[in-house]
Amino acid sequence: MRKLTVFSALVFIFLCSCSMPWEKATEIPMGNETHFGTETESLPDAWKQPLYHDTYSGSDMAFKAEDGCFKIYNGSEFVRTYLNGVNVGSGYPGSFPGELAVPESVYFDWFEDISKMNCNTIRIYTTMMPAFYNALYEYNRVSDDKLYLIMGVWYDEDMIEASGDAFDVLEDAVAEAKEQIDIIHGKGSVEKRVGKAYGVYNCDISEYVLGWILGIESDAYFIKTTNMRNPDKTCYKGNYLYTDDEVQPFDAFLCEFGDRVVSYELQEYKMQRPLSWANWQTADELSHPGEPLYDIEDAVEMNVERFHLRESFSAGIFASYHVYPYYPEYMILQQDYVDYRDENGEIDTYEAYLKDLMSIHNIPVLIAEFGVPTSRGCTHVNPYSGYNQGALDEKQQGEALKHMAEDIHECGCAGGLVFAWQDEWFKRTWNTMDYSDAGRRPFWSDIQTSEQSFGLLAFDPGENGFIVNIDGEKDDWTEEDVIYEEEDIRLSAKHDERYLYLAVQLEKEGIAAAHLYLPIDVTPLSGSSVYGSSVFDRDVDFVIDIDGASNSHIYNHSYYDRYAFMYRYMDDRLEWKKYREEDNDIFTPIYLCLNKPFTIPTTGEERGAERYETGKLKKGISDPASEGYDPLTDFNFTGKFLEIRIPWALLNFRDPSTKTVEGDFWSNKRLGVGEKIEAIYIGCVKAGDRSVSAEYTWDDWNSVRFHERLKESYYIMQECFGELK
Fold it and tell me: What is this structure's pTM?
């Protein structure tokens, strides 16, 4: 998965402290006794995946990784098969991933849509609830286009954090792998436990499990600590896998882990399948002299070419990498990558890297993750391709994914898996994670956080659609939404799990000719009543400044500027000492950090902090059914009517579901101290006039309303995968 911080590779921490709030989900059977209300009948073998019997090992197999590709047995021979697929997470709005709340019927529908996208492969990261395996069993039973599964085995992150030594997590990881092997063979029974899947697993899907990708992205700390603490473990000789005679201890750990997984399935179920270990750009074996964070992003390596197979294990191993176009820094700084031109004469650092990666491998290479998100917020940019970590619309996401998928195919990889199938509200990103309450993230959609929007499937607020489609029309508003009226101005407000929506009706002139200010008071601890030539009736923390189609912004009061507080020592453009004065009339642009200062080792060039103005507002249409649909739309107007939607995070809400905003971080000396409020106050005034504000409040919520929607990128990838299939 992607980085949570620019300086280090943090692994995700699945928070499981909240009970499941999702009210619509019905009780799902733990086994496979029933599927969608019907009993599973005795079935002929014709629908099943054919198996090849290897007489040497006395085992069955349906898949091989060899000759640079994957091969699937068709009943008479192993046929070369290119893998098009997606990574499926366990996130679902209103629940943490450890609650595994996705219903069986939803999984079945997802599998249908994934298959219609011309995919043949899905990947999961850890054990899922029985509902997942039940749905996959049922889908493959009734479908002509089968879906193959790549299974993951997750390390215990708490153990990694506590010791940093891979051998300390080995037994736990092997135990989880054995549990998963039992599960895919329909022999699993797991007692209820907090934060992990459990239940009775009766569905035998073993014929459709294409292979294993063991472990997680291993960072420099994990690999270096393992090597340092185990100097004598420089090789491993197992029953089915063995290493070169002299390898790093971390390689010995990986090989032993894999050997024990293979051993268990062969001994217990007489079946074998291809095997790999999760890797990423940070731990490739290539040298990246231009990487400014070389002690983190280019300090370690792991290469499974150092592992070898006994004759009794013929399913094969493959290399597995997560490859993104915008990070680490060497992806946009390494000179030979920047100098590379694709067949169209364009700079293509992504293809350049893939060719470099393929040059060190003889075994098949699977790009197990590639993707870009459709978040409003951005985390990192690629200045050459524009394939950024956020601030992309759905068409741009699809075009980026298509280009990367074609690069992956043309470079001779064995397949590519998009990250990810679905958006996940619970996730965090390094440049926004200090802005929200970890225990409440699943209960609202933070469109400013790039990690939440990698999916081809969106979870949008509203049971059947957005409560407001921003298009400058009045049809989504009623008299009940009006919060105040003056002689020339009527102001309305409503909200959902992602946005605060505002509407302004003028009586005397059109919006295009008016210069409007909408002041918003969030907390009584800060703010100013003066903005330019206008005076407000109370101190406010934010001002939405509507000045035509291309010059509109939302500004924050300088004392309530989280960016200035966090990056005051790194961004020398900030007048943060002045900002610290509570009683000032300074309103500043709202920024997100893209990069901290660094020095390029090969040239000595020093680069300062990189940021972008996330408070700049975009005019457009937010209705997915409209021909002019733009998911990054913030406002629109027609004649005398104006509509605006502002993400909760732009108003410094840590959790809108409990009306919790950021407290006084200058006094608290840190972010993260939330302040519970009862209401916010909103006004509307023409530039130069005085304003009157109105109260707007809402009830706290512990359940969420949402609907699924296939993004425009889904259909682009449907066509792309159809061509690569």
Answer: 0.94
